[in-house]
Amino acid sequence: MPGALPEGESVPRDGSLPAAARRAVGARGFGVYVHVPFCASRCGYCDFNTYTAAELGGGASRETYADTVLAELALAGRVLGESPPPRVDTVFVGGGTPTLLPADDLARILDGIDRTWGLAPDVEVTTEANPETVTPESLRTLRAAGYTRISLGMQSAAPGVLAILDRQHSAGRATAAAREARDAGFDHVNLDLIYGTPGESAEDFAASLDQVVAAGVDHVSAYALIVEDGTRLAARMRRGELPYPSDDVAADRYLAAEAALDAAGFSWYEVSNWARSEAARCRHNLLYWTGADWWGLGPGAHSHVGGVRWWNVKHPSAYAQRLAAGESPGLARELLTPAEAHMEDVMLRLRLADGLPLAGLDEPGRAAAGRALADGLLDADRYAAGRAVLTLRGRLLADAVVRDLLP
Question: Considering its fold, how many domains does the chain have in total?
């Protein structure tokens, strides 16, 4: 089941923000995230804030969800008032399974964002999708509405691996959906992979990579399986039905992904993401990773505006009830201190291919960077130019490098 939200100070009933935050909005870019919390079934590894029909209860439904999101969007427009962002640079619709909503509803939400704040002429608009929930017709509708990018949850090409993960689509459906998206006119198509699943062989993962490359997509995300408490997969492992993931196997899979994708013309730009060109990089995720602002719409969605971060109530029914009463769905918020903002900046930017400036580290951090360089974890040429950029070995140990660079 979904994990717990963090604690924080109360959000005002009207959702109002400090004047300083409103004045700063959009200075480093502005995006909108829309969370769609519905899934047809729950994958065994998933602890995201998602709900099947049986878990929803009363007060929330797919049929009325677009209207509820538009109600939060209207509130957001009132909160920012005369200090709106100069434009919306990116929109990302995630979940859950956004494409369980009718394509026309996803189009209405995007139109509402445009009417509230205005979309930049070169806006990137992404939706996530499970491969079995899209058709050529729905993809054409989304593209005509202004969606420019789609991210499809492939996870694996091996039927046995998909079964362990409780995925519902067939082994070949993800790559077929990717081709349908390109035929529908999407500018950019991503396929998501998960590696290190119990029972996955090196040959299984190699076949997945081969199918991704053959599908003609221009972006690939690949993540090691993480076993979260409270999931069905964690319960199976505790009972001894499945072995726990191996760090050594995960490292081998990562190296295999880097080799295969590099040979196919992809370049890494974040530890878990590869793109065929700079234009194919996910600009919305880069907005997160570089400390820009975004408004998160939907239950459990997080937002960040002018140094204030807040998160909405989790359950779709509670979310809908608050908005129906004319109240903010925000559950709690925090004002980031300079130290917290610095910590997050180091943690996120070091994962990028551009790295971070050494000048932004304190003296102990620069000393730690020197040790990382000596250990082969940072690129020597980039270090000489004043930046900390991970080597391939450093990417395998990124979390440890970050811990060393921070106080």
Answer: 2
